[in-house]
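Annotated sample (chain length 384).
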Amino acid sequence: MTSSRPSRRIPGWGQPARLITRLILLGIGLGVISGSALKLLAPQVRQQQLALPEWLAKQPWIDSITPKEAKQAKGASDSAGSMAPLAPLRNTGLPQHPFAPRQEIPALSQRWIQQAATQPDLQVSAYMLILDDGRFAQMHAHRPMPAASSIKTPILLAVLERIDQGTLQWNEPLTLTKELVGGGAGWMASRPLGSRFPTYEVATEMIRVSDNSATNLMIARAGGQDAINARFQALDLPSTVVNNWLPDLDGTNTTSARDLSRAIALVDSGETLGPRSRDLFREVMATSVTNTLLPTGLMRGLGGAQGAPDSALARKGYRVFNKTGDIGTAYADAGLIELPDGRRAVAGFLVKGPFNDPRSTEMIRQLAAAMAPHLKPKPAPAKP
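Output written by the structure step:
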């Protein structure tokens, strides 16, 4: 007799094998899909346009698609986040000081008058201001006199103001045209008309070798003679006027010892230029190759070991950023003086006399030498 109950199958390896096969195929499928997705998203990960989940970012194989810079930056930010914020430093050092004359040094002013009196046929203008304490000396300091190339210092100031304003780029090319070619000092006049020079080169050559064509390029780019004169007036430089393109051998361009000193002080105090433009001003002024007037006179007044002015002054702890002027009948020099104790002074000198008379340049050296006793550093306080 046959039973109607279905036969009972004995379990074997068939079902587990099929299950394992399905799981393997599922894993392979998921791997292919994930790999394809990562491959498509890798460029965005490298460019840091896509943030990965934390669990995925910690996988060791993820380094192959994550840029090294991003990992370093993340590490730095994590470290920064765990650090306490830095407390602001209190500035107890050497602050900047404006052009603010407060107390005259009568001994120096009188000494200058005596020196000038030894050469009565020379016209002399002199000014010095110690920026940190406002002590100053003067002799005919406001008298307008032929500026010669010393006018290039306030021109540099006016140009750098345009850098700050964003109306001029430091690397902007300037084109040499016929009306801007100036003879005398410099090399740019020898270049073909239409030559183009970057502004930084033009400004540097205007000071470094007193290039007259470079100066004319700067005046033109600053808006021309009327515009730059208006700016000088706004800066309270009343004696500083550009009346002629360079070279101005007739001495129609004028300035004063006080104006030259003020122009330099306005830069150093931060009253006119931002930090980067102030740096550019100092860098350009430091390229001046003529150090035979103010620096030489100061070195002479300080005494001790002499030699090349710049290096001799540096050994004593001084540094001078100056610009001279010379048209034969008029000479000038003005600069920023850094003292060994960190204080700063500005000084300007102009002399007008007979053509190529050596007494004119010697007068500037004597006036600069007379400043030296008043520019000695203050003794450093003794440490306990």
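Annotation: The radius of gyration is 36 Å.
Annotation: The mean pLDDT is 86.
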